[in-house]
Amino acid sequence: MQASALVLISLAAGALLAAQAPIFARSADHAGGPVQAAILAFAVALSALLLIGFSTGGGLPRAGVLRMPMWLWTGGLIGMAVVLLSIHAVPRIGTGSFVSAIVCGQLVAALFYDHIGAFGMETRRIGLSELAGVALLLAGVYLISGQRG
């Protein structure tokens, strides 16, 4: 798949992620609370992944996952924490404030991870343009969420 197509699909995924947080927050009203809404969300996701995995012949993860480094298991915990945070934060600060802060945090951390070559990835230098971008991102978060009276 071409890079331009992946960028467009990623933009669409970003739009769906913005919808995900208020959906989770509203489902908490029906599920019995934030933890129950997160359980429901992950049960739906697991069911869909099992269906896709078995219908494409992929099945379950290989037994080798039991020998992978412990830090690789944190991805699922991070996802769970973000879902719970969205359920608590969105009704209080709004979708725009939540998503702007999440995206800013992701981009700032991603630049740092690139700079140090975290998680076994290739090292990429951070320059003045990236630092200026971070400053603009932080200003954007402030403008979107910091003007509350």
Notes on the protein architecture:
There is one protein chain. The chain has one domain (3-145). Helix content is 74%, strand content 0%. It is built from five helices and no strands. The chain has helices at residues 3-31, 34-55, 74-93, 95-116, 128-145.
Give the SSE map:
Blueprint: H1 3-31, H2 34-55, H3 74-93, H4 95-116, H5 128-145
Helix pairs in contact: 1-2, 1-3, 1-4, 2-3, 3-4, 4-5
Features:
74% helix, 149 residues, globular, mainly alpha
Concise structural overview:
The protein has 149 residues and is mainly alpha-helical. The chain has 5 helices and no strands. The protein has one domain.
Shape: globular
Number of helices: 5
Q: Classify the helix fraction into a percent range.
A: over 70%
Q: How many domains, as an integer?
A: 1
Mean pLDDT, to the nearest integer, reads 90
Q: How many strands, which pairing sense, and closed or not: the largest β-sheet?
A: none
Distance, first to last CA: 46 Å
* Percentage of β-strand residues: under 5%
User: Structural class from helices and strands?
Assistant: mainly alpha
Number of strands: 0
| CA-atom Rg in angstroms | 18 Å
Order of helices and strands: HHHHH
Uncertain residue ranges? none
